[in-house]
Automatic annotation (TrEMBL):
Record's keyword terms, sorted: Membrane, Transmembrane, Transmembrane helix
Organism encoding this protein: Bhargavaea ullalensis
Protein name (Swiss-Prot/TrEMBL): Copper export protein
Key word Membrane present: yes
Chain ranges passing through the membrane: 12-35, 56-79, 91-113, 144-163
Length: 165
């Protein structure tokens, strides 16, 4: 029994979803805590290069999730005309998931990433921490965690929307 195009596309959709969500969570909950073992100047250098590289990769993975989701709902799914989006349960869930996906990706790419990089590139915060005054850096990093947490809420909302189909 061969796989259908729909099944293969669904597998690709899930794979990119795992890369997107798993990558964000691994960086936030795995790498960031481990980096605290380094001295402040090495933390800054490492985080700046890590964020620059992972941002592109994870943003592309998020865009791929959204693109494959659109294909799964339209070309390889039940949505064949605009009216289906507003008059069926599937269409409403589809639009909700699409909106949440766009908002989550947009928040991560344009708000969370930019805010994180502004803190990471702030030489004054890092040099003061290196001289024994880490309070301002710690406060700024807590704000980074809060801003980035919105993206995690987006992932949870997307998961809930997808599981209620």
């Amino acid at each position: 029994m061969g796989l259908t195009v729909h099944q293969m596309l669904l597998g690709v959709h899930i794979l990119f979803g795992l890369i997107w969500v798993g990558g964000i969570l691994f960086v936030g909950w795995g790498v960031f805590p481990a980096v605290k073992k380094l001295d402040f100047s090495h933390q800054q250098q490492f985080l700046e290069s890590l964020m620059g590289w992972t941002h592109r990769l994870l943003s592309l993975a998020g865009a791929a999730v959204i693109a494959t989701g659109v294909l799964l709902g339209t070309a390889f799914g039940p949505i064949r005309e605009w009216g289906t989006l507003w008059t069926t349960s599937y269409g409403i869930h589809f639009m909700l998931a699409f909106g949440l996906g766009i908002l989550t990706l947009g928040w991560g790419a344009f708000v969370s990433y930019r805010y994180s990089m502004r803190v990471i590139r702030n030489r004054t915060l890092w040099s003061m921490a290196g001289r024994g005054y880490p309070m301002l850096l710690n406060r700024a990093m807590r704000r980074v965690t809060a801003v980035s947490g919105v993206e995690v809420l987006g992932f949870v909302s997307l998961l809930v929307a997808m599981l209620t189909f």
